[in-house]
Automatic annotation (TrEMBL):
A Pfam family that the UniProt record links to this protein: PP2C
UniProt cross-references to InterPro entries, sorted A to Z: PP2C, PPM-type-like_dom_sf, PPM-type_phosphatase-like_dom
SUPFAM superfamilies recorded: PP2C-like
GO molecular function, one term: protein serine/threonine phosphatase activity
Protein name as it appears in the record: PPM-type phosphatase domain-containing protein
Length: 380
């Protein structure tokens, strides 16, 4: 059986670059040429892909429609296999509040997902998405090992820039966003690593499996920031805040005056900063196993609230790396169906998967691809 015959669904495009290539020839394309502000703060060529600025018309976009994107750079810069999907949920009077960005340089990828909340969550998430990456890249340019310091400085600078913008400062008082940011790079030419920083509940995982074995294993790169996490609840109470117990089967919430929040850490939500909400990110670093198939999956809680991590990883892993876009589309569609089965509300859903290719041009999955071609299909 040929590889194409083993696809789970018809594949109209394989990678996000194929989507871009197709859309750019469409006069009504939702993908626009535009430079990301971070490109001015890092030398050399950058391939940039990120969510477009929110507009009034987004409130009237069809439910489950794709988020408009911005793109800048050369496709040849994207040697990694990347898939990205961001769909509006089913929430009346609310646009897609998720954001994402991918900034690809020769030896690194900086990428992230942000999930806004509150009446202006979409504005807050976009502001952070456009301003944070540049400060991080500037710090790493001075010292490639200063990941934690660069991210912390980035969050601090983001707060300052927000306060200088009166309109955004007002919006970020009662609205906020999660942040999950990852850097894939190669500090030594023999190894690749992924470093993460996060606020909130947009989870990232590193999936890997030995090439002689079909079982996927997961290393969680982010630990969820919610008030029902025991150490987070204690931190909130120590800061003088309160955690609201919403009853059996319901997640606890952080009380913030007349409001309550589902997350215990975020950016924005400045009204809650005196009530236990934290803007301090947590960090993780993992080396990629070069002798294994591996990919990085990061999603907003629109996926994780309805799908266990291993199930999501197994779904992605059923697709060969060159069909990464098809894989995330399938994941997002499955998550949407599960939300619909739960009730009338469907959350915004954003998913990003990246299969790395290493310095010498070989892929993390190259041996497996060769083996799959020999036997007639990708090993599920």
């Amino acid at each position: 059986m040929a590889l194409g015959e083993r696809r789970l669904t018809a594949c109209h495009h394989n990678l996000i670059v194929d989507v871009i290539d197709k859309e750019l020839s469409n006069p009504e394309s939702r993908i626009h040429f535009k430079r990301h502000p971070a490109e001015d703060k890092t030398p050399g060529k950058v391939l940039a892909l990120w969510g477009d600025e929110p507009e009034e018309s987004d409130f009237f976009a069809p439910y489950f429609s794709s988020k408009p994107m911005n793109f800048d750079g050369e496709f040849s810069r994207m040697r990694h296999c990347l898939g990205v999907v961001s769909h509006r949920g089913h929430k009346p009077d609310q646009p897609n509040q998720d954001e994402f960005f991918v900034l690809v340089r020769k030896e690194s990828v900086l990428m992230g997902i942000l999930d806004g909340h509150g009446p202006y969550g979409h504005c807050v998430a976009h502001f952070a998405q456009e301003h944070l990456p540049g400060t991080i890249l500037e710090g790493l340019r001075a010292d490639p090992e200063s990941w934690e310091t660069s991210v912390k400085n980035g969050v601090t600078m983001l707060c300052r820039e927000c306060q200088l913008d009166a309109d955004m400062a007002e919006k970020a008082t009662m609205s906020g966003t999660t942040m999950t940011v990852l850097m894939l790079d190669s500090p030594a030419h023999s190894t690749w690593r992924v470093r993460s920083a996060h606020l909130g509940d947009s989870i990232a995982v590193l999936a890997h499996r030995p090439r002689a074995n079909g079982a996927w294993e997961i290393t969680q790169l982010t630990n969820i920031h919610r008030p029902d996490r025991q150490d987070e609840a204690q931190r909130i109470e120590d800061a003088g805040g309160q955690v609201l117990d919403c009853g059996e089967g319901e997640a606890s919430r952080l009380l913030a005056g007349e409001w309550s929040l589902a997350v215990s850490r975020s950016w924005g939500d400045f009204h809650a900063s005196r009530m236990g909400l934290s803007h301090d990110p947590e960090f993780c670093e993992e080396n990629l196993p070069l002798d294994s198939d591996c990919f990085i999956l990061v999603c907003s809680d629109g996926v994780w609230d309805v799908m266990p991590q291993l199930q999501a990883v197994n779904l992605i892993g059923k697709y060969p790396p060159e069909e990464a876009q098809s894989a995330v589309e399938k994941l997002v569609n499955k998550a949407q169906l599960r939300w619909q089965e739960k009730g009338e509300t469907v959350d915004d859903i954003t998913a990003l998967v990246l299969w790395p290719i290493f310095n010498d041009g070989t892929a993390s999955y190259s041996d497996a691809i060769m083996a799959s071609q020999a036997v007639g299909g990708w090993k599920k």
